[in-house]
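Propose amino acids for all 317 sites.
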């Protein structure tokens, strides 16, 4: 009986989630950044029947790993709370040592998710995706580039040779593109709204720019033009997927017009095509600023549903 129950549970929740209760404890005041989404998503998964055992709690990243990407000078400024007011203004979040702890922990979470993806095929971080952070400064709600750190940390420990970052957040992945530029062991793909922050977009390996008002059809056609082809050509050992919820038509920061169904199809292309050819996928949430928190949480939950469905399909013996 226990065996059957265990099997059923594994069937319902076949992929590990990385999450810490500390994610939502950061006080950002009245802010468009929806810090509560992390907790809300965790609670929704519990309501859907996930058990505490399905969640793995990360440790903060080591300074050694952070320094694979970020400059010693910037790391020191963060740890000693000595950023200039101009540097803090660029981050656009209230600065505190709690924020510093938060970003170290989030980075540890993305590294852990990447390792779990290599073991299990798929893993989801209920956080991460801070793609606007550069090696020597933060911007746009991003302090440390957890994605680039995970790429470098896994490469250094010999777990992967080549990683592909598939960035489907509404905003171009400027920090990731800049940090990983010219590195043969990383391929960066970004599909984003052009007429929007960041105004300066360092080139990714492949950039796809869409315009205000573009919806499901334009987006999915552009995505299908690249996937699964890029997977087959680059043959990464790991895919890091930024499943931003902000291309949604109800987002406050953007004006792409993707429906929830369109976003689900996007997830199915990115995750499904990778798993079809057995590429491990680590999913991170990235942005999402819908007027209603429930919309952002619902879109992230749909990504998890797609990931679980794909995992059930491709984990058959
Ligand atoms: Zn975004």
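Proposal:
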């Amino acid at each position: 009986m226990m065996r059957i129950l265990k099997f059923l549970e594994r069937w319902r929740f076949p992929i590990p989630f990385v999450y810490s209760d500390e994610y939502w404890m950061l006080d950002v005041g009245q802010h468009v950044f929806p810090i509560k989404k992390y907790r809300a998503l965790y609670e929704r998964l519990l309501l859907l029947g996930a058990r505490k055992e399905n969640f793995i709690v990360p440790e903060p990243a080591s300074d050694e790993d952070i320094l694979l990407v970020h400059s010693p000078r910037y790391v020191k400024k963060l740890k000693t709370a000595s950023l200039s007011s101009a540097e803090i203004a660029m981050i656009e979040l209230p600065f505190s040592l709690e924020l510093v702890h938060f970003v170290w922990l989030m980075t540890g979470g993305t590294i852990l998710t990447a390792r779990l993806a290599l073991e299990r095929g798929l893993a989801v971080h209920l956080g991460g995706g801070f793609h606007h952070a550069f090696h020597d400064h933060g911007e746009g709600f991003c302090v440390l580039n957890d994605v680039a750190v995970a790429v470098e940390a896994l490469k250094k420990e010999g777990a992967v040779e080549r990683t592909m970052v598939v960035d489907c957040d509404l905003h171009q992945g400027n920090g990731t593109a800049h940090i990983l530029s010219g590195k043969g062991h990383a391929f960066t793909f970004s599909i984003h709204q052009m007429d929007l922050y960041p105004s300066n977009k360092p080139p990714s390996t492949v950039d796809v720019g869409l315009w205000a008002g573009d919806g499901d059809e334009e987006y999915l056609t552009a995505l299908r033009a690249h996937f699964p082809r890029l997977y087959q050509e680059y043959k990464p050992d790991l895919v890091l997927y930024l499943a931003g919820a902000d291309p949604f038509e109800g987002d406050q920061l953007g004006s792409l017009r993707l429906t929830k169904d369109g976003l689900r199809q996007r997830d199915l292309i990115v995750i499904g095509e990778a798993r079809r050819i057995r590429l491990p996928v680590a999913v991170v949430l990235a942005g999402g600023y819908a007027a209603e928190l429930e919309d952002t949480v619902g879109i992230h939950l749909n990504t998890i549903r797609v990931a679980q469905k794909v995992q059930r399909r491709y984990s058959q013996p």
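The chain has a mean pLDDT of 95. The pocket of zinc ion is lined by residues 169-171, 244, 246, 287 (CB under 6 Å).
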